[in-house]
Structures are given as C-alpha cells and as structure tokens.
Design brief:
Structural class: alpha/beta
CATH topology of the largest domain: Rossmann fold
Number of domains: 3
CATH class of the largest domain: Alpha Beta
CATH superfamily of the largest domain: HUPs
Radius of gyration: 22 Å
CATH architecture of the largest domain: 3-Layer(aba) Sandwich
Helix content: 10-25%
Strand order of the largest sheet: 12-15-14-13-16-17
Length: 387
Amino acid sequence: MGEKIRMARILAAMSGGVDSSVATALLQRQGHEVVGAYMKNWINEEGLPGDCPWQQDIIDAREVAEHLGVELRILSLMEEYRQRVVDYMLKGYREGVTPNPDVMCNREMKFGVFLDYARAQGFDGIATGHYARIRRNEDGSTDVLKGVDANKDQTYFLALLEQEQIGPAHFPIGDLPKPEVRRLAKEFELPTATKKDSQGICFIGDIKMSDFLSYYIPELPGPIVTLDGREVGEHRGLHLYTLGQRKGLGVASNTFGKAYVVIEKRPETNELVVAFDEPETPKLYATRCQVGLISETNRVLFEMEERLSAQPRYRSRAAPIRVVERSPERRAMIVEFLTPQRALTPGQICAFYQDDVLVGGGIFQEIFHEDGHAAAAGKSQVEIVSR
C-alpha cells in the first residue's frame, strides 16, 4: 500500500484545485517539510475566447497554503510553456496529426522545468495531485503504478517520463479513490473542498481546442466526402478534426440514424473523409502501428516480451500487444494489438504497461490498415523538445 514514507523537503505543485490541495495537506500530515508552488504558465494575454481562470486559481492556492500554514511561491514559466508545450502542439496540428499537450506538459513542465527549479532550490522531491502511485525498489530505482481509482488513473499522462524525473516524484493521492479525496478535503477544511475539477487544455483553462487552434492556424475549408467520393458537407480546416471524431462534423446522420465518423484526412486534396461508425468500417479500426520517440520509465522496454499492454488514449483500457519489430537506435517499435482498436491516431500518445506498472510510452507515428495505407496525413513528424 503506497510508498514507504521518508521525511523530506518537498515542493508541492499547487494548481488551486482540490487534488493538489489534498496532496499538499497529506504531505504535511506525514511530517514532510512542504513548500507550495503555483506554476503560472498561461494568462491569455492574446484575447482568446473562453475562461482562463489563473487569477482565481492563484487565489485558491494561496488560501489553501495559508490555511495549512505553508509557503506558496508563484513561478512565472510562461516563456518555457510556450516553447515546450504550445509550440509542440501547434506544430503537430499544422502537420495534420493530433498531439497531446497534457502529456507534454507533464514531461516538459511539471517534471522538467518545475523539477529543475526544485533541485536548484535544494528540495528533495516534488509532489503533484496525480492519481498514480510510486514504488521505491530495493535497487534504488522507482516505478510508476496505476492509481487505485481506475476511473481516475492518470498514469497515461506520465507515459513520457524517464527515471530521473520519476525518482524525486511523490503522488500522495494515488492510493485514494476520488470520493475519499473529496472527504479528506472537507476533513482538512480546505477552501477548495467543493471546487469543481478543472477542464480544458493543461494550464490554459476552459478554452475549446478548436477556438485555441483557430486563433493561431488559419482555417482552410474543404469538402467532407465519403469513401465512394460523395460530398456530404464542408469542413473548416483539417487541423480542427481528429480520427474517430463524431461530434461537431456538421454532417447529419442518415435516415437510419447512423452517425458519420472521421476515418481519414487527405491534405493533398484538403478532403475530410467520413464513414458510418461501425466495426466493419474501413480505416476506422486497426491492430498494427508504429510507435516512435519511445521513452522508458525504468525497465528496458525494448527487451520486454511478457504481459505487455498498451493504452492508446486516455479513458481507454490498456490492451494486450505483441512487439513485431524493435529498433532501439531509432527509439521506435512496430506493435500489434491482439484486438482491433478504434481510431488509432498519429501524434497521440501510446502508454505501455506490464500489469499495473507503467513501463514507458511513445508517439503513434503510423497506423497500418489492411489496405496497406497509413492513417491521417501519414507519419507523424512531431519532435519532443530535448531537456
């Protein structure tokens, strides 16, 4: 049950939400020397539509810190966030793939810039409100395990972390289900006890992704077509759609109530291809894919054979896989799911597990279908900023 407690000086990431608030309170209860820090990564200076509640979040984080009697530092990391997360995200969408800014925010910001700051300030480790668990091994290494609450498990978002980032990490609420976290918030009498969970892009707030993208990438309308070439509507720009998407297409269901789903994007003709959302629909389901830019949390993923599974998106379950080809020098593998997976998407994150242990992750680069063609705009060329 959880990690063995060792008293330490810990910098706790406080977002102003209930999860990070309870995480900080638990660390303090355990006897650690705790300092809180709010990462100010985005303040919406450019007038984007939507709610960017950073000011209220700072107020909430400060009230929690004062209630607990811990210091709160405000770290301005906007330049680093734009370079490491926003630029990566926009580059991916411009290339026609679907990046994951939340995963990159963890790798580059929380367990990158934030961790570097903590080390420079003499802290022993950092803590976040992730629903994940840490296991300290006898050989001195550290594993990340799935959170106890299967409905809230967030290890998928930690898939690109490496051992040097995991070792100093603490996840105080990983052993708890969400209702217990809410109960503890009330027990601690935290000001955020009843605050709703945040939504939207990591650290940007409740802004629709389409609105965010439209501000930076010009819309280029084009035809929505079926596989047989019939035009059924008009899209606003290929970058605003992702494989497997059903809602927001602007194309009505047919007379039998069957809904259309995006199965392909053709940048050479600026066509968005749709078909009915059915198991037998061509290009909607796949088993084989290439995953690149692979990182390993602890174990040597390229040498692993048994009990490997992969989670292709958040909220989906990890499914058994077999490794078809390995290329450690290129940090890439071709893997095959034992059961067909819906809408595998270039640019998205693939998290690898052995039982409940997160063993690594990478980025979907190519999805192979029975017709031999790759999905979307072909191979993802998205690169990760080197730390």
